[in-house]
């Protein structure tokens, strides 16, 4: 079983293409199904620890995997039953069912079991699940002590993570060959429980990946405050927000943090405060300018944003500055960090999954787009995408976005690729939240950033 971190995320079309390539190289659909079902059975046997397993099988190849797994469990002497609501509709699933020698219970009457293996629908679910099937699955999932899904939980749309049935989460999802968008995008991701990937020897590639811990380095002996990165945070109408951003940048390894034009008084002494000036932004030692948290939307804010856009330094644009941006582009690196409302205000309604939306927004704007949320998607105009799937829900509190802008600013000022800076910043932010535990406020979050960084050295 493999953790998701850093793996390519594949759509149904990409998975089918990979499967077709494996078949062209000599594999067969039945052979792939045998691999998948047996790999599932091996994990289920470990997790079930001797408890009876009920396998619920659907009409497609996901169901086929279920019949193979049931037969493998039975051969291994494990107590196992099978239930279904429909005959197999593919040749491979039909052949797999023919090799299951036990009884098959009608789904609606199936007795509860301590372990439920959901092989009802995989990536082929295309429309809302029927109410009767949904009700039966709900009863069986709720009645099990442990529920495990084959590939994806039944009732989610694999390619965009939409929900196609109102069902409770399973405990474990065994993704076959690669993670799919449904494993990382909400609302489907919260239905998956712990996701682990089973290697079925089908080679997958792609430019969309699950976030992984960044590989950071310690400062070299010759390091000084400017080489570590100078972050200039532009303040405005609500000084507390810019103070959070500046504090987060200072705790994310920046060598020097400058807060320009903000009237806040409670600030660490290490953060240098100055009046706002366009000249300060243009200093070539500035590695990143962060503008937006608490900026306001009045004339002064507009003037400050104009100066930032013209200063020629790498930019992180957040909050109010996103509203004032009005489609303008800059020549240098620019990272924009909208949440869903800001994203729609900036780019209008873009169709497709959150991954596709973020990519399209990056392509149109030429900026690195950090599309925030419970599933944060970071996209570059060149097609690279990273999904940060498991930020703690405790992050849904005021000021955490200001902290994120500061972390990304520090990574950007440290140099290197702006896309990596944005992805690394999002990971460190989520890790700091995991370290902060429950019910933290945004001010507490920054204090956990050094430990998060320590985990990446
Ligand atoms: N890709 C690989 O390398 C491997 C994948 N495996 C497994 O195969 C499934 C995907 O199998 P597929 O047959 O394409 O799809 P499903 O099993 O998920 O479901 C398709 C069937 O379900 C019907 N369907 C779809 N929506 C509904 C609905 N709302 N209600 C009832 N029935 C529905 C669909 O019928 P249509 O009318 O839409 O045609 C199909 O009959 C993948 O997830 C893996 O588990 C391999 O076994 C190993 C290699
Ligand atoms: K399933």
TrEMBL record:
Catalyzes the epimerization of the S- and R-forms of NAD(P)HX, a damaged form of NAD(P)H that is a result of enzymatic or heat-dependent hydration. This is a prerequisite for the S-specific NAD(P)H-hydrate dehydratase to allow the repair of both epimers of NAD(P)HX. Catalyzes the dehydration of the S-form of NAD(P)HX at the expense of ADP, which is converted to AMP. Together with NAD(P)HX epimerase, which catalyzes the epimerization of the S- and R-forms, the enzyme allows the repair of both epimers of NAD(P)HX, a damaged form of NAD(P)H that is a result of enzymatic or heat-dependent hydration. Its EC number is 4.2.1.136, 5.1.99.6. GO terms for molecular function: ADP-dependent NAD(P)H-hydrate dehydratase activity; ATP binding; metal ion binding; NAD(P)HX epimerase activity. Binds 1 potassium ion per subunit. AMP binds at residues 372-376, 401. Belongs to the NnrD/CARKD family. Belongs to the NnrE/AIBP family. Residues 15-208 form the YjeF N-terminal domain. It catalyses: (6S)-NADPHX + ADP = AMP + phosphate + NADPH + H(+); (6S)-NADHX + ADP = AMP + phosphate + NADH + H(+); (6R)-NADHX = (6S)-NADHX; (6R)-NADPHX = (6S)-NADPHX. The keyword NADP applies. It holds the Pfam family Carb_kinase. Homotetramer. This is Bifunctional NAD(P)H-hydrate repair enzyme. Keywords: ATP-binding, Isomerase, Lyase, Metal-binding, Multifunctional enzyme, NAD, NADP, Nucleotide-binding, Potassium. (6S)-NADPHX binds at residues 61-65, 122-128, 151, 241, 294, 339, 402. One of its GO terms (biological process) is metabolite repair. InterPro entries: Carbohydrate_kinase_pred_CS, CARKD, Nnr, Ribokinase-like, YjeF_N_dom, YjeF_N_dom_sf. Residues 208-456 form the YjeF C-terminal domain. K(+) binds at residues 62, 118, 154. Its cofactor is Mg(2+); K(+). It comes from the Bacteria.
